[in-house]
Amino acid sequence: MKKIPYLVILISTILGCKSLQNTSEVSQPTVANLDLVNVQNDKVEVVIDPARFTSETTTFYIPKTVPGTYSEDNYGRFIEDFKALDYEGKEIQFTAVDENSWLIPNAENLDKVSYWVNDTYDTQGEGGVFSPSGTNIMENQNFMLNLHGFVGYFDGLEEQQYRLEIKRPENLIPGTALTLYDTSESQEQEKTDIFLLDRYFQVTDNPIMYALPDTTAFSVEGMKVLVDVYSPNKVYSSEDITPGIKEMIAAQKRFLGDIDNTDKYAILLYLAQAGQQDATGMGALEHHTSTVVVLPESMPKPALQKTMTDVVSHEFFHILTPLNVHSQEIHYFDYNAPEMSEHLWMYEGVTEYFANLFQVNQGLIEEEDFYGRMTGKIETSMNFDDTMPFTVMSRNILEEEYAKSYYNVYQKGALIGMALDIRLRELSNGEMGILDVMKKLSEKNGKDRPFQDEQLFKDIVALSYPEIETFFEKYVSGTTPIPYDEFFNKVGLELTEEEVNTSYFLKGQTPYVDINSETGELFFRENITFNSFLDELGVEGGDIIKSINGTAVNQENAYNIIMSSLSWEPGTEVTIVVERNDEEITLAETAFQPQDKELKLVDQSLDESNSKVQLRRSWLKD
């Protein structure tokens, strides 16, 4: 998964991841029926028909969380009119245990359950659900079926087969990596698609986007790639997106080499409409053979293509980890009482590192661009607790105390990957890097052989060098900050700092502010260092901006107000009213040229024959 701060996208728009219980007979799969034709009040009816139960009671669940989101989203909140029916069609009394589970007595008489599903995209603030893991119901136009939001499971039946039967309007087609088992014409202008899945995990792991046909397919080294696009105002088509995606995936396949995890991959791109009740959580969510991407339809083509490269490349690399190399906590994921792995540094951090490294490795970006991305991550990571053990944060990521540090997974997590890569290159005289280690882990484990969480470090050390144990003890499970200057020195680079001019609310394209997608409020970002003007003004991270120079600020006018600050001349009186700890505070200051510190990596100007330069070449280009 990769989230993008809302205002980063806004600026770009203008600028250019239980054991089986014997509770039922197994002669038939669990059948899930979704009716996309008879939509009522923006809701879809779902019927779940399991095999006959032999137990006295059963519990039906809608997931509390799903792999890859690292958040508790409680999808049961969007379920209405839940019913349990016996074989005569009569209702069975049940107990709603919590918002995600329903206890059903007399289970031996249970035939099926039915309920109505509301979507997240047009719910106020999307109920806090990240859009790429959310749902959309737009009758006769678009259905974003992240199936964990529609299809539940019975306790103990997670490992049994599922049969999806989806009734749809004839003109809407499914965008998915799933293989269509059959399609039948139920009535005029209606069809029913049937998909067969081995277990419930495959249900949650295979999103489907129904929309008018807009699909482009291509092949890269034996892998078929599908690009499905929903652009409500026809601003973009799949043909507009495909060339950049094709170039990117071809480069990724070359970078990965002989790793071959799938013969089919689907990219489902949903372009949200600005100014309407629609998806606002921009970014993507990975699956074994597909990625759901949500971005604003208003993005200019160059910005859209760059964002797709950065975001989709991150998600595509998840085919390596955690989708292929993962712990038991992920393989046997408990959707309603999850135990989290301690290795987010690898699942998300190393993945993010690869998403940047491959671009310089394959010549998609220059070395200076790569250096800038890494120093940017260092700067951002310094706004978090640099002594917090990454393993502890990862294991407890669902707890509020640690959830606030999740964004650092993409910052320091990637930097852990970078430092480990350089250390491996140093120990091997340039012959082994972190990608080589990941390939060995993939061969050792694979998607069907999960490792024990506490065993991973030992496995990596055994596959590489004894010295790597010290690396993990100090920088990943320990409290020692990474000495970046020491690692960069190994490859002939020097970390320097300089003062740079910024805008009042922007440092380059990185905003000091963001928008709360649930409330629409503009706020000063936490875990970020402010420029000299904002420091002098007295802002604090988390301050909610109520007005700027007398103009009330909201999600609709935030961009225009921020852009107008670019014309503030030195000496202009600036007044910002903020809400802090439920109290309104007026901040005033005379405008002056803001400055901020910026880290830069510079070449030590060594001869090409120098061992440090040779090590750098193996790091970036081998």
Description:
The protein is of the alpha+beta class and 622 residues long. The protein folds into four domains: 1-16 and 214-300, Neutral Protease Domain 2 (Neutral Protease, domain 2, Orthogonal Bundle), CATH 1.10.390; 30-208, Immunoglobulin-like; 320-486 and 604-622, Orthogonal Bundle (Neutral Protease, domain 2); 503-593, Pdz3 Domain (Roll), CATH 2.30.42.10. It is built from 17 helices and 32 strands. Strands 6-5-9-3-2-13-16-15 form an eight-stranded mixed sheet. A six-stranded mixed sheet has the order 1-21-22-20-19-18. A hairpin with a 3-residue loop joins strand 10 and strand 11. Helix 10 runs parallel beside helix 14. The longest helix has 19 residues, at 238-256. The radius of gyration is 25 Å and the shape is globular. The two termini are 27 Å apart.
Name a few traits of the molecule.
622 residues, alpha+beta, Neutral Protease, domain 2, Immunoglobulin-like, globular
Architecture blueprint of SSEs:
Elements: E1 2-3, H1 6-14, E2 30-40, E3 43-49, E4 58-61, E5 79-86, E6 91-92, E7 95-98, E8 101-104, E9 110-118, E10 136-138, E11 142-145, E12 153-154, E13 162-169, E14 173-175, E15 182-187, E16 190-197, H2 200-204, E17 208-211, E18 215-220, E19 223-230, H3 238-256, E20 264-272, E21 283-286, E22 290-296, H4 301-317, H5 328-331, H6 344-361, H7 367-381, H8 390-395, H9 400-403, H10 412-427, H11 434-444, H12 456-463, H13 467-475, H14 484-490, E23 493-501, E24 506-507, E25 510-511, E26 513-515, E27 522-524, H15 532-537, E28 544-548, E29 551-552, H16 558-564, E30 573-580, E31 583-590, E32 595-603, H17 611-621
Parallel strand pairs: 2-13, 19-20, 20-22
Antiparallel strand pairs: 1-21, 2-3, 3-9, 4-8, 4-12, 5-6, 5-9, 7-8, 10-11, 11-17, 13-16, 14-17, 15-16, 18-19, 21-22, 23-32, 24-25, 26-27, 27-28, 28-29, 28-30, 30-31
Helix pairs in contact: 3-4, 4-6, 6-7, 6-10, 10-13, 10-14, 10-17, 12-13
